[in-house]
Amino acid sequence: MEGNNNQYLPDPRGCPMEATLEVIGVKWKRVIVYHLLSETRRFNEFRRLMPDITQRMLTLQLRELEDCGVLHREVYKEVPPRVGYSLTEFGRTLEPIINLMRDWGLENANKRGMFPG
Asked: Each residue of 35-57: pLDDT tens digit?
């Protein structure tokens, strides 16, 4: 096709999707980022919002998101100690992607009868 600007041509550096999946490819990371879009969260809030995640897995996923610069871990000097998690400026760049995934999920879950109403 003449004049076709095919954005899906092979890239010698690999698929650009890999860069995104490297950051949020694990199921729980996307959900964590989604819950941080609205506000700073504490560890136990995540446990309530995501009851199927184990404490060990949540700790691991939060640490990995912090290591790659997506979230900031704030330790408050209080007794008892309190820790809050929030998105960094870099983490906020994922907002459009996460929102598109949410919208797609809602639309298609409704079509498949996953959510009543």
From this structure: 999 999 999 999 999 999 999 99
Cis bond before residue 81 (omega within 30° of 0): no
Backbone φ, ψ for residue 116 (5° rounding):
-70, 155
70, 90 Cβ separation under 8 angstroms: yes
pTM: 0.81
Which residues, 6+ apart, have CB-to-CB distance to 17 below 8 Å? none
- Helices H, strands E: what count in the chain? 6, 3
The arrangement of strands across the sheet holding 41-42 comes to 41-42, 82-87, 71-76
What residue ranges define each of the domains in the chain, with the CATH number in brackets?
17-111 (1.10.10.10)
